[in-house]
């Protein structure tokens, strides 16, 4: 921890000398519910099916996880610098490694509103479309980010005991235009490129996005990510902003693969000897629509929010792999494949059946969030999440998460905790896991 704070101090000093920021913010979050690795809780007890030739069995696993996220942010009229260092320790056998480090950040140079440059390995939600916001999840999908650097390019480097998380290096440019009698019309244009390590060499993904809004009336946005690839991804967004305390957003997605909002199902595959291999796999969908809305009843201290994302048919984005006569991979192509079909691998000139999916199944996600302010220092929250495949009830994953947040005295930050219950039919028939998240977050701000 001492090294982490020393790193933040060095960053702070460097930024202060070079740009004289108007505001410095340092935020630290202790716990395991971090931005990048939010699926890890402090303690979890999990049950899971284990498939074998002799018959199915049930395994039980207790795991612990602990992390820290230190973030420093500097702002002035012409530049923003944001740096973050996360680490996560776990004893979970399913984790990528026992200790994971995630260094990230960006520099955003703003010589004028008509032209700005951003560079870094993570832009977080800095360049986001307002109408792409999911109110119940309290998040913006990566499809709703004008400049994205982590849409399917995440990598872990290292060993089973130590690894570093990376999603490449991104460079982007933005331009903002305002007009009207009261500058009520606003347009943002953004374009960027992400470079990330591929199988043999560095690869590039190119992005474009735009957002147009009429102040206190409507917001519209569009993004296209990795648009030179066959499996490019698009998002169209619209939202109403004319009513105080009301959120009402709609979205259309093309090639939707974001795992946070899609179910996981059991897929049967084959190895080279035609033995069945059972694995749990996140699903994808070619076309999806989304709705998000909610209202904050300020006088009552109560708010309610709901999100829905649903696929429109049983198509998804699959992969066909081509092999030479020696079994070496020579080409990979994306393809639209109906569920129930197979992904085909060509080896030695002979077609081989691979992953088998449930026919007619359509992915669906729903989340509900209720929040009640008891006092200025105490807030209660109830989250309900459903991820399933219509037509395949064995994939249904339901989460119930009551949560409490307490503001500590003397600007000591806040503590949030609760109990997360999961019913995951893909991995276990019934209550599959019970876990306890615990997070302590505090900020330090200094204006110059």
Verbal overview:
The chain is mainly beta and 448 residues long. The protein has a single domain, classed as Porin (Beta Barrel). Helix content is 4%, strand content 63%. The protein contains 1 helix and 31 strands. The strands form 4 sheets. The chain has a 23-stranded mixed sheet that branches. Strands 22-21-23-24 form a 4-stranded mixed sheet, with no helix packed on it. It has a two-stranded antiparallel sheet with strand order 7-8. The protein is globular, with a radius of gyration of 23 Å. The two termini are 27 Å apart. The model is unreliable at 1-19 (pLDDT under 50).
Q: Over the alpha carbons, how many angstroms does the gyration radius reach? A: 23 Å
Straight-line N-to-C gap: 27 Å
CATH architecture: Beta Barrel
Estimate the global geometry from the Cα principal axes: globular
| Main sheet: strands, sense, barrel | 23 strands, mixed
Q: What is the CATH homologous superfamily assignment?
A: Porin
Tally of DSSP β-strands: 31
CATH fold category name: Porin
What structural class do helix, strand and pairing data support?
A: mainly beta
State the name of the first-level CATH class: Mainly Beta
Number of domains: 1
List low-pLDDT spans: 1-19
How much of the sequence lies in strands comes to over 45%
Tell me, rounded to a whole number, the average pLDDT. Answer: 85
Number of separate helices: 1
Portion in helices = under 10%
